[in-house]
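Narrative summary of target 7.
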Amino acid sequence: MVARTRGRLARAVARVREDIDAAVARDPAAVSRTDLVLNSPGLHAIWSYRLAHKLWQEPRLKPAARLLSTATRAVTGVEIHPGARIGDRFFIDHGMGVVIGETAEVGDDVMLYHGVTLGGRSLARVKRHPTVGDRVTIGAGARILGPIEVGDDVQIGANSVVVKDVPNGAVAVGIPATVRFPDSPAEDPYEALFREPALFI
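Modeled conformation, tokenized:
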């Protein structure tokens, strides 16, 4: 029992460190790791979500999971349903106004900016929120709606509205979003910003 508890604690600490490393790598305004731990609402929301998601797995603890997610929304401005499934090294920059629905699925190494919605377009009790692949960046104010698939290595521009699948490696911008591919697989994302102003976040 003690060994199992230590193992769980070690895994939790490792995951927290991994989240902090991801935040340091993606936030040029970060002064230090301590600064991020104390002042990043995105990190606070993620950590709270991870606990709420654990609680959500136990039917009798679902009300507690919902209470925790509601309290977190009040404190951070980020609303993540505890039923959502979110991968490793997830980061939300700024945080305010992010909404992630119950059946949303998010891969590894994903970054969201403020005001992003991973929302539904149905009231039916079915898979109604997006599935987002690995290494995806979603710009401020973007809306990804419905049970669509967003592939790996996708960039979604600020304020875009995405209601159709986005294939791997694509760039999606506009309302409704249109999809294009980089000129070459090695296109520098920084250079892409100058070609596609809507990617500015």
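The mean pLDDT is 89.
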